[in-house]
TrEMBL record, chain A:
<dbReference type="GO" id="GO:0000814">
    <property type="term" value="C:ESCRT II complex"/>
</dbReference>
<keyword id="KW-0967">Endosome</keyword>
<comment type="function">
    <text>Component of the ESCRT-II complex (endosomal sorting complex required for transport II), which is required for multivesicular body (MVB) formation and sorting of endosomal cargo proteins into MVBs.</text>
</comment>
<feature type="domain" description="GLUE N-terminal">
    <location>
        <begin position="1"/>
        <end position="138"/>
    </location>
</feature>
<dbReference type="GO" id="GO:0043328">
    <property type="term" value="P:protein transport to vacuole involved in ubiquitin-dependent protein catabolic process via the multivesicular body sorting pathway"/>
</dbReference>
<dbReference type="InterPro" id="IPR040608">
    <property type="entry name" value="Snf8/Vps36"/>
</dbReference>
<dbReference type="Pfam" id="PF04157">
    <property type="entry name" value="EAP30"/>
</dbReference>
<dbReference type="GO" id="GO:0032266">
    <property type="term" value="F:phosphatidylinositol-3-phosphate binding"/>
</dbReference>
<dbReference type="InterPro" id="IPR011993">
    <property type="entry name" value="PH-like_dom_sf"/>
</dbReference>
TrEMBL record, chain B:
<dbReference type="GO" id="GO:0005737">
    <property type="term" value="C:cytoplasm"/>
</dbReference>
<dbReference type="InterPro" id="IPR014041">
    <property type="entry name" value="ESCRT-II_cplx_Vps25-sub_N"/>
</dbReference>
<comment type="similarity">
    <text>Belongs to the VPS25 family.</text>
</comment>
<dbReference type="InterPro" id="IPR036390">
    <property type="entry name" value="WH_DNA-bd_sf"/>
</dbReference>
<keyword id="KW-0813">Transport</keyword>
<keyword id="KW-0963">Cytoplasm</keyword>
<dbReference type="Pfam" id="PF05871">
    <property type="entry name" value="ESCRT-II"/>
</dbReference>
<dbReference type="InterPro" id="IPR036388">
    <property type="entry name" value="WH-like_DNA-bd_sf"/>
</dbReference>
<dbReference type="GO" id="GO:0016236">
    <property type="term" value="P:macroautophagy"/>
</dbReference>
């Protein structure tokens, strides 16, 4: 009890109220004292007791003296208590109600209960040790003084204040998003290591599983996507993007017969990029750079307006020859039938047929049932 | 009709769709033109009504359920007109004369017959040319008057014949 000192109740700079509870009595060790009904206030720096009847009786003990606290649950005709163990006070201590005490602890008896919450906040404050952090003295203009000033200036200031808070909240939220993106990068890294492991241990895993996993990986895709942030907004961005697209798309293009509609490309690329989505316009602009950069992929617009990417090695003659042979084989084909035969999209199958027709290797039969293509017997017979 | 043999194209469905590829279309129209002329010839028919043509077996193959569209028919007839085998009877393009031999060709045919017979420098009537026993085996036997007249006018402009009134003609 001798650790307490008399104070006039005012907060120190940087100190703030945490929780208060009325109807609390102080015990010096196990013994009752005359401080038996007061308001117990926990601040970030101190534990303060204020007498309910005599307002000038205010006691305080610095939280820096607290060694540990213990909870004592309530019993029959006995209020719940918190035992606060204190260390010896500094020599320069202000006078208190008791000059010396044989006990190294005090008890706070919660007659109106509320001890559970108080205990929780108490522990929290002890963990945070806010009293150790020195706080610069508050600026008298922007601080309390300004808040008291009424009028338009005051309102404006409070609006400014609110905006500042909001800005802070928003930037904090974006910080979270950035964290998420960092994590996504780690995920990609992880998937890469797994894929190399798979390659090394090909024998242990069934082919089916490998294929399945590879398709997952394919959708994870681009580890370090070219973005406007990393490459600016000018030509450099598009050239770099074009290079990356060509590198990423070369293999999928080969797998699906050397040609892919631009809409498919768009979906694939954006799935691979994860967070850094591309706009259709940026994709198109980048694709238009292919030819200039002499990349092995080309953007092609069919007469029908359908845009596709195709490999440079993809030869139209070969496609026409192939389609012609199929037509001869099947007597006649619709775009749907050809799509099924070759595992292509219907749009691309139609383009193939139109191309073959353009080369005079096919002719059309247009009816209400749809468009059907035949070998061009007009020319060959 | 029974004697008419359809060309292979007639049973080829794309034949009834005007082909967008120009090279293919050229071949297709060639086939159509010769089909139309041959068919008309076998029917000894000169007049074609385009509004009814769609239902004629010429443009409608029931077996494969294909029909040349009216636009298609117009294109074929226009192609024939360019060759000199078709003349429109009205400006709306509803009826046309299909001459499976042009007047010029008819003229040459008649002129050859006359030369072979040694009938140059003689006068004969128009009726005699197309309806007498002498010409029964000739292709121009029974040729319609208006077409005969056109054929002879052709010869006249070449200086090979001279029409005498409405009835007679003299060959040189």
């Amino acid at each position: 009890m001798d650790r307490f000192e008399w104070i006039d109740f005012s907060l120190q700079p940087g100190e703030s109220n945490v929780i208060s509870q009325s109807g609390v009595a102080l015990y010096d060790g196990p013994d009752k004292t005359s401080f038996n009904d007061g308001l117990m206030v926990l601040t970030t720096h101190r534990l303060i007791w204020k007498d309910t009847l005599n307002r000038s009786r205010v006691l305080a003990v610095s939280l820096s003296l607290v060694v540990r606290i213990e909870e004592q649950p309530s019993g029959f005709a006995k209020s719940a208590k918190i035992e606060v163990h204190l260390q010896k006070a500094n020599s320069g201590k202000a006078p208190g109600p008791v000059a010396s005490s044989q006990h190294d602890y005090v008890r706070l008896s919660f007659r109106n209960s509320g001890e559970v919450e108080f205990y929780r906040y108490f522990m929290e404050q002890l963990r945070e040790r806010r009293w150790e952090k020195t706080v610069p003295p508050a600026d008298p203009v922007s601080g309390g003084g300004a808040r008291n000033r009424p009028g338009i200036m005051g309102i404006e200031r409070s609006i400014q204040h609110k905006q500042r808070d909001m800005d802070m909240n928003i930037s904090q939220s974006f910080k979270d998003l950035r964290m998420l993106m960092e994590k996504a990068k780690e995920m990609v890294q992880l998937s890469k290591t797994i894929s190399t492991k798979i390659r090394e241990k090909q024998g242990d895993i069934t082919e089916d599983e490998t294929v399945k996993f590879k398709s997952y990986l394919l959708s994870m895709g681009i580890a370090d996507p070219v973005t406007r942030e990393t490459h600016g907004s000018g030509d450099k961005y598009f050239t770099e993007l074009a290079r990356q697209l060509a590198a990423v798309l070369e293999k999928p293009l080969q797998e699906c017969g050397g040609i892919m509609t631009l809409s498919d490309v768009y979906c694939r690329v954006n799935r691979a990029r994860g967070m850094e989505l591309l706009s259709p316009e940026d994709l198109l602009n980048a694709c238009e750079m292919f030819e200039f950069l002499k990349l092995p992929v080309r953007l092609k617009t069919f007469d029908s307006g359908v845009m596709v990417l195709q490999l440079l090695s993809h030869s139209e003659e070969e496609v026409v020859r192939q389609t012609q042979a199929l037509l001869k084989d099947k007597e006649s084909l619709t775009a749907e039938e050809l799509a099924q035969q070759l595992g292509l999209s219907v749009i691309l199958a139609k383009e193939r047929l139109l191309l073959t027709e353009k080369m005079s290797k096919a002719c059309r039969d247009e009816t209400v049932e749809g468009l059907r293509f035949y070998p061009n017997y007009f020319v060959t017979k | 009709m029974a004697t008419f043999t359809w060309p292979w194209q007639y049973n080829f469905p794309p034949f009834f769709t005007i082909q967008p590829n120009l090279d293919t279309r050229k071949k297709q129209l060639e086939a159509w033109c010769s089909l139309v002329l041959n068919y008309q010839k076998s029917q000894k028919n000169y007049i074609l009504d385009t509004t009814e043509a769609q239902n004629s077996p010429l443009f409608y193959n029931k077996d494969i359920n294909r029909r040349l569209s009216t636009d298609g028919i117009q294109i074929v007839l226009e192609e024939l007109r360019k060759q000199g085998n078709v003349e429109w009877k009205d400006k709306a393009g509803k009826q046309c004369i299909i001459m499976w031999r042009t007047p010029e060709e008819w003229g040459n045919l008649i002129y050859k017959y006359i030369t072979d017979k040694g009938m140059k420098n003689t006068v004969c009537t128009l009726y005699e040319l197309t309806h007498e026993e002498d010409t029964e085996n000739q292709e121009f036997y029974g040729l319609e008057d208006w077409l005969l007249l056109r054929a002879l006018q052709c010869l006249q402009s070449q200086g090979k014949a001279e029409l005498m009134g409405d009835e007679g003609v003299k060959f040189f």
